[in-house]
Design brief:
The complex is a heterodimer of chains A (about 260) and B (about 260).
Chain A lengths: L9 E10 L2 E11 L4 E5 L6 H9 L6 E6 L2 E2 L6 H7 L2 E4 L11 H12 L4 H14 L16 H13 L5 E5 L7 H18 L2 E6 L2 H7 L2 E6 L2 E7 L9 H8 L14
Parallel strand pairs in A: 3-8, 3-9, 6-7, 7-8
Antiparallel strand pairs in A: 1-2, 1-4, 4-5, 9-10
Chain B lengths: L2 H31 L5 H11 L4 H23 L8 H39 L2 H7 L4 H39 L4 H11 L2 H27 L5 H30 L4
Helix pairs in contact in B: 1-6, 2-6, 3-4, 3-6, 4-6, 4-7, 4-8, 4-9, 6-8, 8-9
Classes of the chains: A alpha/beta (about 260), B mainly alpha (about 260).
Amino acid sequence: MADGRSPPKVELRGVKKRFGSKVVLDGIDLAIGRGESLVVIGGSGTGKSVMLKCILGIVRPDSGSIKIGGEEVVGVSGSQRDKVLSRFGMLFQGAALFDSLPVWQNVAFGLIQGKKMPRREAKEIAITKLGQVGLGAEVGELFPAELSGGMQKRVGLARAIAADPEIIFFDEPTTGLDPIMADVINDLIIKCVRELGATAVSITHDMVSARKIADRIAMLHKGRIIWQGPTAEIARSGNPYVDQFVHGRADGPIEMEVRAA
Amino acid sequence: MNVFAHIGRVFLKFLEETGRLSVFTLDAVTATLRLPVYWSLIVQQMMRIGYFSLPVVGLTAFFTGGVLALQIYNGASRYGAETFVPVVVLVGITRELGPVIAGLMVAGRVGAAIAAEIGTMRVTEQIDALTTLATNPVKYLVVPRLVAAVISMPILVAIADSIGVFGGYVASTQALGFNGPIYLENTMNGLTYDDVSSGLIKAAVFGFIIALMGCYNGFHSKGGAQGVGQATTNAVVSASILVLAANYILTSVIFSHG
């Protein structure tokens, strides 16, 4: 449901993925417009992460098409894939910082390794980006293991925006943080995405976060998008699955697999 | 469960694993030949794989050389052939024990470390993060370790050879009453280029095997701490077995003509 004027920035059509006999993605159709912030909600194990990894090219879908800015990316490899990846930024759930490198080199990694920028210049940018997420230059000299969870997330965010990406992915950005730090991260995400004019795709099961950072929300259930619409409409979606998830009720059409399947 | 089904499953699993390893090896080798070359990472890995293995490899080589001298003396004296002790120690160390002992020690020390490090990077999504930062993880993580191991192992083994022969010298002169200068002279006279070079070729192959097993198992580790532990164990076990198997094959190939 991207606006009709320009082609969607990210477009998934009939994306399917199974691992062994387990169907994880069962035909995903999704379109994300330029500059839009889409949040995909859904319970654990509904395929949110796999969908993100398919778009990033880390996991290859079995069938279907994924287009970035109108270009097909499924199956591309080598330098072409690097070119696609250089337009992305990604904040991982556990921040995924390189623990052998100091913070500033983490932030500057994509600039130095990916874009071959001189180290001095890359360090300046890294320190600027750290400033944007509210961290001082002195943090740049620390190692990731010396930081708290919230600070690691901030560094991860700084790394995700370091190369001024067109599209940023957020994997459970607030999971594992206290409510206040979660809100700080939400604010930073909104600010960074807006400053860059980037398109944002987030996956989360945190409804507070979803309401705050999303322009539009899509709900994933059993490998399909079962509802999508503007954030304001989620409270009156008329969809019992969405209602159950949004209100966090144990009873409803979604049956939790309490026992291991 | 049906026994045949079980056997079939194990066999399929084996084929799957072999195929996956082959693809991984091919990926790693082609990535080695492609630019860019991460020189600083190679040097850093050479320090970790080669330099920091010196104490443990040196000590094992020293004692192995000593024990070799004692046992060979024991056997040779039955035939009055004690004068052959220096040259048999030399041949034993340079051709077989130097590279094999170093290979096994490095498999335990470095293979485990590589698997644990890369495995942890896998389960904490650091390898995915590399990909999203437009850096090929095989190029960035695997290639420097492979190259460093292939370069450092022969150097390490050359040093282990010297220390091993020295261990034999110490045991012979101190415990067995050999004359020092004559022992050394016999050793130098027995020294041939082929003995040493064959050991160094083996060392390079062992280095490749150890680094490859560490990287492969780390790369494909699953789950959390348990998965990384499993990967580490597999890396050491598979590297050790493959080192010994490769040693047999290399020996039969290198010395098949004489």
